[in-house]
Design brief:
The protein is of the alpha/beta class and about 230 residues long. It folds into two domains: about 120 residues, Response regulator (Rossmann fold), CATH 3.40.50; about 90 residues, Winged helix-like DNA-binding domain superfamily/Winged helix DNA-binding domain (Arc Repressor Mutant, subunit A), CATH 1.10.10.10. Helices cover about 40% and strands about 20% of the residues. The protein contains eight helices and eleven strands. Strands 2-1-3-4-5 form a five-stranded parallel sheet, with helices on both faces. Strands 6-7-8-9 form a four-stranded antiparallel sheet. Helix 3 links the parallel strand 3 and strand 4. The protein starts with a strand and ends with a strand.
Length: about 230
């Protein structure tokens, strides 16, 4: 698997590249945010490990540009910015996972492998953007019509309560990518001032049960949010 490591700490970059290389990864490195996009396009990696604090172009700016260009490569953020707010910003910008420094190398490798497995065929190398398709957003037996907002299981419409449908719409548009609870709460309970934050967990629980026979799983990532993935 091909990894693009964008990290400006020379010691950490060398250690990661050397160790992962010994474990079978093809590691390309870059230490400058201004040059990273060119490396990304040239290398076409299976996964990107991205530091946020980079010279010339910040990691979040770099990620924003990549997603605007439609590059769908899975991205693992590596950073000392470990607060919940920082994780939410990174995930909402388009990151797929988040690992705070200092971290265990075995955990980093496990997360990188998981991102590669979750990537759709051609998706990790491709630059096709999110799950947009001619028939709408598709995962397993689920399909979301982007114009009407209706969700289908095969050819049958799913009769979902409004809040469960809103949650499904938000997650199905970004399959395999975590969406922060804060963002989902805003989408499911827009403008609500008298609703407890934990209510999003109740909606997720109900939606998870309704997806039992669709070939799609709603996964909870503790501290990060929720994601949808095709069932195994």
């Amino acid at each position: 698997m091909k990894l693009l490591l964008i990290e400006d700490d020379p010691s950490l970059q060398a250690t990661l590249a050397r160790t992962l290389g010994r474990r079978g990864w093809a590691v390309e490195t870059c230490a400058d945010g201004a040059l990273a996009l060119q490396h990304w396009e040239t290398v076409q990696p299976d996964v990107v490990a991205l530091d946020l604090t980079l010279p010339n172009v910040d990691g979040l700016q770099l990620l924003t540009i990549a997603r605007q260009r439609g590059w769908a490569t899975p991205v693992l953020i590596l950073t000392a910015r470990g607060t919940v707010g920082d994780r939410v910003i990174g995930l909402n910008t388009g990151a797929d996972d988040y690992l705070a420094k200092p971290f265990d190398l075995d955990e980093m490798e496990a997360r990188l492998k998981a991102l590669c497995r979750r990537a759709s065929p051609g998706g990790a190398r491709g630059f096709a953007g999110d799950n947009a398709a001619a028939g709408g957003f598709i995962l397993g037996l689920l399909r979301l019509d982007p114009e009407s907002g209706a969700a289908y299981r095969g050819d049958q419409i799913l009769d979902l309560p409004p809040r469960e449908l809103a949650l499904l719409q938000a997650l199905l548009a970004r399959p395999g990518r975590a969406v922060a609870k804060e963002k989902l709460f805003e989408l499911v309970f827009p403008g609500a001032l008298d609703v407890q934050y934990e209510a999003i967990e109740v909606v997720a629980y109900r939606l998870r049960k309704r997806l039992a026979d669709t070939g799609v799983k709603l996964v909870t990532l503790r501290g990060l949010g929720y994601l949808l993935k095709a069932g195994e």
